[in-house]
Structures are given as structure tokens and as C-alpha cells.
Amino acid sequence: MPTLETFLTTGVFAFLLVFVRLGTACMIMPGVGDSLTPNSIRLYIALGLSLVLTPVVLSNLPAHIPGGIMLFSLLAMEFVIGLFLGTIARILITALDTAGMLISTSSGLGSAQMLNPAFATQGSLIGAFISVTGVLVFFAANMHHFLFQAIVSSYHIFPVGEIPNTGDMLEIVAHTVAAAFAAGVSLAAPFLILSIMIYIWMGVLSRLMPAIQVFLIAVPLQIIVSLLALALTISAIFLYWLGTFRDGMMFLATGGGG
Question: Please, where are the H alpha helices in the chain?
């Protein structure tokens, strides 16, 4: 029976631990973790990735199978860590939705709502467009590799069998939320400036020609100018966001820069 015991320790048990951490992250990561993605597809991707990454992180896994409540505690801690990793990636992609909401509001399209597939909720028109396109760019640019790199590095930051340091987790989450919000505002900054300039022009025009219905002229112009600006800056928006996502994942992989 030593051969079977060795197989269970180094094979099935190791695969199970990796699958719990990586599979939980895949359940909420961008693209794969979207609510409109079939559960079977998520499961197949998680199983395949776990099979590939198990030999890579095998040296960081325990050599013996714990028994009883310790086994369930170990799996629960791996679940929490995987949930944390997936949440970080999900927070970073919310920068696009934040930028889209600000762009929609500043362009006069704030009242136009539609289903955002990336979050399975009602969102702004431009926010839904940017979020869906961002997921496509996310995989086209191989940014999911940074997520897998962070998962491998997490075995050094959060070793298997040790209770996760909630202080480090909260610090990383706070840094990621701040970075995502700052990125969203930065992406929408040109449109906010453009909107302010249009409002100033509307105010001056209403003073010079009070008889003119300024909103009937300015609102269509505001929408057209904002859409033209979006067409000119959409590439820069995604390039800037990809850099933010890469920095966020590298920040996590290095344990907060420590």
C-alpha cells in the first residue's frame, strides 16, 4: 500500500488543494467568472488549469494528508485564499465600469441603461461596452497570465496550512480598490474636462442669447463630441487599463511590494 499512499499524497491530495484555490479564483475572475459563462465551462477550465499547475506548486504543498477536521480546515483556508485572489482581479476590472459610468454621465448618456454582462447588472451604455470589450482585450493581451502568476506566488505569501494574514489581505484589497478607482477616474478625465468646457460654453451662450434654448443645441452636440472623443481615445483607454491590471497583479504577486 505504500505506492497507493504516495499517489494519494502527491497526486490526488495535491491536485485537490490546487483545485480549491485556483478553481475558486476562476469562479469570479474576469471572463471565466462572469455570470453568463456556463458553470460547466468554468469547471473544465479550473480542472485543466489545476492539472497543469499542480506540478509547479507541488513543493509548497504538505507531504502528508491531515485527518478529520484538519483536512476540512485546510480546504476552507484554500477556498478563502482563492476567493481573495479572484476578488482582486474582479476589482481591477471594475475600473472600466467606473470609467464608463463617468463617461456616460459627462456625455449626456447617463440615463441610457442596459445589461452589463461582465457584472450581470444594469449599467451605463458606455460602461457595458467598455467592460465587455475590456474582457476581450484582457484575454487577447494574455493578461490572464499575470493572474496565474499571482496564484503561483500566493503559495509563498499565503502558505498552505497557515491561517491567512487578514491584515495583509485587507491592505492589498484597500490598495487595489484605490488603484482601480483612480484608474477609472483617470480614464474618464478627458471626458470630464470636455464636459466642463461644454457646460461653460452653454453658460456663456445662455447669457449672450437668453432667447435660445441652449439645451436643445448643446445636448446633441455634447453626445456627438463625446462619442468622437471616445472613438479617438478608446485604444489609449484599454492600454492604460492593461497597465493598471498588470501593476495590480504584480503588486499582489510581490506581497504588497514587500
Answer: 2-7, 13-28, 39-57, 69-106, 125-140, 144-157, 166-208, 214-253
Query: Over the stretch 65-104, which tens digit does the pLDDT of each residue have?
Result: 666 777 788 888 888 888 888 888 888 888 888 888 888 8
Neighbours of 179 (CB within 10 A): 18
Q: Would the pTM count as exceeding 0.85?
A: no
Model confidence pLDDT, tens digit, residues 8-54: 566 777 788 888 888 888 888 887 777 777 888 888 888 888 888 88
> CA-CA distance, 17 to 33, in Å (whole number)?
20
List the domain boundaries for the chain.
2-108+115-253
Set of cell numbers at residue 95: 475600473
Question: Which residue is it, cell 457646460?
Answer: 199
- Residue 145: which residues within 8 A CB-CB, separation 6 or more? none
The residues that bridge with 116 in the sheet, in sequence order, are 121
